[in-house]
Structures are given as structure tokens and as C-alpha cells.
Amino acid sequence: MHRVVITGAGTINPLGHSVDETNEAMREGRCGIGELDIRDVDRLAVRIGAQVTGYDADARFNRQQQALYDRFTQFTLIAAEEAIRQSGLEFGGKLAAETGVVLGTSGGGLGTLDDNYRAVYEEGKNRVHPFIVPKLMNNAAASHVSMTYNLKGPSFTVATACASSNHAMGQAFNLIRSGMARVIVTGGSESMLCFGGVKAWEGLRVMSKDACRPFSANRNGMVQGEGAGVFVFEDFEHARARGAEILAEVIGFSMTSDASDIVMPSQQGAARAISGALEDAKINADQVGYINAHGTGTAANDKTECAAVASVFGRHADKVMISSTKSMHGHLIGGTGAVELLACLMALKDGVIAPTIGYEEPDPECALDVVPNEAREASVDHVLSNAFAFGGLNAVLALKKV
Amino acid sequence: MSGQVENRIIEIIAEQAVLEPSDITMSQSLEDLGIDSMGLVEAIFSIEESFDIQVPFNANEPEKSEFDISSVQSIVTAVRALIAEQKG
Fold this sequence. Notes:
The complex is a heterodimer of chains A (402) and B (88).
Chain A: E1 4-12, H1 19-28, E2 34-35, E3 48-49, H2 57-60, H3 63-68, H4 71-87, H5 93-97, E4 99-104, H6 110-122, H7 132-136, H8 140-149, E5 156-158, H9 164-177, E6 183-190, H10 195-204, E7 227-235, H11 236-241, E8 248-257, H12 267-281, E9 288-292, H13 299-313, E10 321-323, H14 326-329, H15 336-350, E11 352-353, E12 376-377, E13 382-389, E14 393-400
Parallel strand pairs in A: 4-5, 4-6, 9-10, 9-13
Antiparallel strand pairs in A: 1-7, 1-8, 2-3, 6-7, 8-14, 11-12, 13-14
Helix pairs in contact in A: 4-8, 12-13
Chain B: H1 2-17, H2 37-51, H3 72-87
Helix pairs in contact in B: 1-2, 1-3
């Protein structure tokens, strides 16, 4: 069994265009949610979202690249560049063959689909650009990272709705742990904030029209976000031998399926994933100082998640801090676990716990320390990151301070 | 017209409950009829499509919604009010 560490992190999300900007926003409890600025927003009932603002695709990618890179791929490449630069790795020869790319996304190139359905159905065009298929496919981002950095090892995309990134990072962890790969570029990306994307979510009637207030008694739903988080997972011995800066160690992962309902979460399924991650990491619940919650701000998730944490943590449930950073960056769906892992790294590395902002009223069914509204300084050695997807697919990661 | 609204709503609810329309009574709640939150959201969608109206309803806080879903009768009353308001 090989130990696995994180040696690079990168992101672009509604809170910032880099890890530093994102950490600063999380420390300050800044909210990235605002009025949606997308085509046909006047035909939507839900008009808020957490968009990546101040982003100019033309400044990052040329016309040929943009013909192939959907917005979710662009976000992935930007985040991957920051992560790989921080890791200091250069990929050639044997290392290139032993390095792969495992990324999560739910909608893939949904914006490309939306634009081109419009062109053929609404505008009656009979021809679309020749690269629509390679642009919209879910694995486009993973393939472009692989091509850009010459990464020739195990590479694929994981799509498990809101747990996609956690499942992807769990696969990356196990690929390195088992010796199947030396390094994996992993994380996830999402860009569903287009008319069709929001319209579909609107139909479920679980979206808030004003704010994301996880765990607060007056919460009224989720708010969708967009962006990417990408990390370099590396074999510990390899990282140590080259004197790399280690951000944290990944020590456990567990995944379970509720096998019960396509949208309603199960306390038992979530609890089995949480206790499974502790078991895999060989730690006890009382060693965990912080949990980055799934915390969507829906009635169904927050109650179930708190009950699951309480059941696994027992008496220690009152001491563990648990926050939902979705209150700030929104729900990035397939990319959410990756951006949320940044809050875990900040907790372990900097001793700063990101808050749950928008918290207004205690809910007796969510009676945990949700780090309301203001970041907190605290030294934690072990953290968990929860993700519970539609379809009842759960994935929990455990990390440790190095 | 008012009887048509009632009949169509009963049809929609019966479909979700997997019952015959004749088995539905006005005092029953959706819970009595075995309709869960997904069935409710589908029923509201069918109501919106049938009457070309917008129904204000958030699954996170059904009790706070202006749309009263406590019984079949309350749904009929609420839909009539929405039709009058939006189509009147």
C-alpha cells in the first residue's frame, strides 16, 4: 500500500480565480451568489446562481482552442495549470506513463448542448460546428488535461451527479495507493448555468429563489454554482524523494449506495459512507476536527446529513465542526467536492475553518456546530469531505495534516 | 368550467396515486392517497400544463407555500384561485 499526498491545488470558481483568492473569500465569508447573467433569464423562475465572474475566455484560449473547449473544459484546464505548477512536476518518460487524469463532472459540455439545440431546434439551422461531439463529451476535460501535460496513465471521467468529484478523487487515491499509478491529476468541473441547465433544475422545485442557507431553519433550497477544482495526488515516497511541498495526506475513502430512492437521501447510506471512510483511514470519529458537509441547503439533505453525522460520531458530534461552503460558492454539482476540498486543505494547512454563511435561525434537526457565518481559527489534524448524490450514491474522503 | 377543473385535478391526482378517479374523495390528503414528494412535484407539473398556470411551490418548505396542498379540495380551491388570478 502506497501512501498518497496532495502536492498541488488549483481552482476557478465563483469565489476566485485561484486557490489564494478562494481561501481569502472563504476566510472572509464572502458570498459568490448573485443574479444570473445568462441568455433568456427572464423566462426562468430561478434567477440566482453562483457564476464565475470577471472571466474572459478570449484572454485564456485562442479561437481554435475555444472551438474544442466547452466552458467546463476551460475551467478544468485553468485549475489544472495552477495545480500542476504548484506541484513542480514535469511529465516525461516513465513518470508520464505513470500519471493519469481522473475527473468528475455531471453535465459535461451542457452549455455546448444547450447552444446547439437552440441552433437546430429554435433557429432552425441544419448544420452545427464539426467539433460539437468532442466538445460536449463528458471526458473532454480529462482528455485535454492529458494532452496538454503529456499524461499517459489511467485516465477517465466519473459521473455520479453531485458526488462526481469525490468519486473521482477516491479513484485517484486508490489508483496510487494500489500502485497502478504514481501521480493522478484529479478533481472535477461543472458549468450548467445556462438556460436549459437551470430550467431542468427549476422543475424539481428544490432551488432557492433568494439564497443558500444550509442548516438554517429558514433555508429554502439549493443554489447552483459553476467552476472547477483540480489537485495533484502523488505517491508519498515520490513526493518526498523530490522534496515537494505536501499540502495534506489522503488517508481514506468510502463509497456506498442507498439503493432506495432516486432523489431522497438516506441517513443510513450516508452514515455507512462516513463510517466507511473512518475505517478505511484507520481513525476514530473523535480524531476528526472538521467535516466539509454536503450541505446543499435543501430540507431533505441537511436533516439527513446531520442525522447521519450524529449517528456515526455519537457524543463527539457536539465537538466536531461541520460547515457547508456551498453557502458561498453554490452547488457546483459534479465539481462541488473538488472546490470543497479546498476548505479541507485550508483547515489542515492554515488552521482556518470556512464558515456556513447565511445562517439565520437554528434548526433543532441540524443541531451541530455548523461554524455559522464567520470563519474560525482551529487546529485540526483530520478532516472529512462528504458528497451525497441524487441516485443515492455517496462518497466520503478522509484527509490528514502532514 | 368549475366542474371541469375539479375533474381534471382528480384525474391528475388519481394518476399519481395509481387509483381510479372514482376512488378519490375531496377530503383526502395526498398522504392518505400514498403520494410522496416526487408524486406531488409531478402532479403540480401536470396541473401547470393542464391549466396553463404557474403554481408557486417550493418542495423545501411546502408548509410555507401559498399553494395549499392539505387535501384534494384545498388543491382544487387553490387552482381555481390561480386560474382566476392568472387567466381572469
